[in-house]
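hey team, just a heads up i'm posting the complex here instead of the shared drive bc the drive is being weird again. everything in one block, sequence lines first with there labels, then the predicted structure for the whole assembly after. its two chains so it's a bit long, scroll down
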Amino acid sequence: MSRIFASFVRHPSGRIGLVIVSLYIVAAIMGTFGLTPHNPLAMVPIDRLKAPNEAYWFGTDILGRDTFSRLMVGIRQSMIIAFASVACATIAGTIIGLFSAWLGGIWDGVLMRFMDVLLAFPAILLALLIIAIVGPGTITSIAAIGIVYTPIFARVVRGPALSLKQRDFVDAARTFGSTQPYILTRHLLLNLVAPLAVQVTLALAWALLTEAGLSFLGLGTQPPTPSLGLMLAESRNLMPQAPWLMIFPALTIMLGILGFNLAGDALRDILDPRTQRREA
Amino acid sequence: MTKLLSVRDLRVGFGNDSKANEVVKGVSFDLASGETLAIVGESGSGKSVTALSINRLVDFGGGRITGGSIVLTRADGTAFDVTGSKEAALRQIRGRDVGMIFQEPMTSLNPVHTIGDQIAEAVRLNSGLRSDAARKAALDVLDRVRIPDAKSRMDYYPHQLSGGMRQRVMIAMALVASPRLLIADEPTTALDVTVQAQILALLAELRAETGMAMIFITHDIGLVAGIADRIMVMQHGVVVEQDETSNVLDNPQHEYTQHLLRAVPHFASGNAVRTDGERVPAREPVVKVDDLVVRFPVGGGWLKPKGAIHAVDGVSFDLVAGETLAIVGESGSGKSTTARAILGLVDKQRGDIAATTGRSKRPIQMVFQDPFASLNPRLDVEALMAEPAIANGQKHDKALRERMAFLLDKVGLPEDALKRYPHQFSGGQRQRLCIARALMLNPDVVVLDEAVSALDVSVQAKVLDLLIDLQHEFRLAYLFISHDMAVVERIAHRVAVMYAGQIVEIGDAKAVLASPQHSYTKRLIAAVPAIERRKQHFAVDVTQVPSLVRPAGYEPPDARWREAGSDHRVRHEDTP
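-- predicted structure starts here --
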């Protein structure tokens, strides 16, 4: 574990990704405990649409709320949804992929074709469909984004699981009479940790974007809770007068995605056995 | 004899700083036309790089010749400087003067073209012949490499041919240009022992027919006795010994050559079999296999298999405690499938496998060929060793840890190995680990599926000794699957020879190895390479393994056996 962290710090773009992701996590935690410069929900009519200044670092919106504080809480909201949905997708996708590979035959066919159907829809469209059926809200967003990314995890797990299943150590385990749950967890899942870790990091970036998209369309987080997508949507009509209302949330989204992507790429390099061998 | 090739102080390096990363450090040799030079060495000794420098193919692998000279005498008598020539000039040399064949014939052939087209293309490029004439020339050359029924094989794709056939096709392609020097880079390493003998015989005959010189690269010094005029032994990029074949083999000067010769497993035609453990027929067998049949359905469409591969077809044998039965045969003979069926890893169609359940719930355990693949890389040794016990309801407690430590000690591994991971062990140590793990459940029978084949020769000997010691101590019965006759001779009490899914000969090891009765056993034993076989040419034998794919519902005729001795049974050969 410490070795992976050390390689992260050594990896040039991994270092940048790590800094960004840490920054966002700190911001999210501070947002949770109210450690923001201003109350993100407090409306100060006299300070409406202030440009960035010493008191309001990123300016204020049309209701006089501090953009910086709202961004911190927005990051928290986005992170909660991203982490929760990716967790759902990881668990569901891993189980589906693992069973699909292990059982094979008709199970494999049915499960993976169903995953293909889900994958055929554009992510945001599928999430829209689910929310349209259930109704908007934080929990619905988590479920919708989770379902959208499940097929990707199912695929990432199924491929290596199929080849692991053929390996001698799985055959050896069968000759001892090891139970299926034991083989599935110790021999298959344990060897899938590396590809899964990479996929989780990358999926967090996509989930962040999808969440922002849903909120922008008014189907994710509901006002008055601040959210990155929602702030973008509110800024649309005020763009000429208050460009900071759009620039800062957009930059926040972009930087977040960049951070997770860089971290994911670095993780892939670090966990790749070929690069490991080169270091050894 | 005229001088064909002269290599002086050749140095080859790799990478950006090729002077610093030298792989070949000053190699010199001469080759006369019609002469065969064998370059022998372990992997990393620079033997292949030396050979690839002769036609400068090494350039394409990132290598640079950093010093020395290679001078080739061309057919018209002019000297050609290989080291200083441009790519365009080198292309004139490749094929026409220097032909080459590689280790893996499958990857050297293009899978989407028929072999006839591929050879005809070589003909077109070399002699400018067109369509029909080129095909006819291709057919001629296929005949020359003794491919049976060459006319119909012209339209085969590479995957439809066996490994030995593919290597013949590669040789045919090299022969198209009538090279004066043929470089063969481990041409038989990927092949079975009888096929290896066929290819060696073919190369020897072709050399006699065409008068070409040959450079034969191999890691197996036992192989070269029959084919080479001179031997050059390489280690770490330098030549440690170079002389006439008989001088090197009988009177090796360098200690590395001596080490190589000692390490080669020695097959003594049944004169070195084990003398312990007389078979007592009255004793109850620990495992009895009766009429085992394994078939894999192939072809056909929906719900309607057209036929089946008869991988194992009516195999019967038994094993008593403390005895080793070796199953020998080539790849595809069904020996591994037999082992896997006994362990329940493949489904059998028919047959009984009765094992006594005396001291263990799981009386049969297995050790696999590849010690790198049979241990989960993410688990430490303690978890790996505990798995069989936990799978059978034991607790991971002090008693279990004591048993692990006891068995690790028995196989010669330190106790602190428990906290380490598989990648921290060498191949031999890992195989010891696998053996210890197989013994965790105190089995009666251990199936060893090519268990020492992946190990270096010197490690192999130690693991065999260990297996014999463990057999005495725990009264284990071994089912030892192997293609290596020298190894079988060391460990087996009894030998069963498998051919095309059936046992063709079974009995006492000495009887089977010393006086083989079945024609296949005879061929198998005759093909074992040995240092003693100087210049003793094998007859070119084109016998093919029959196809194992049978129509649905096919049953082989009942086996008829004859007794060749007190414990030696031979299957009657069907006259077609």
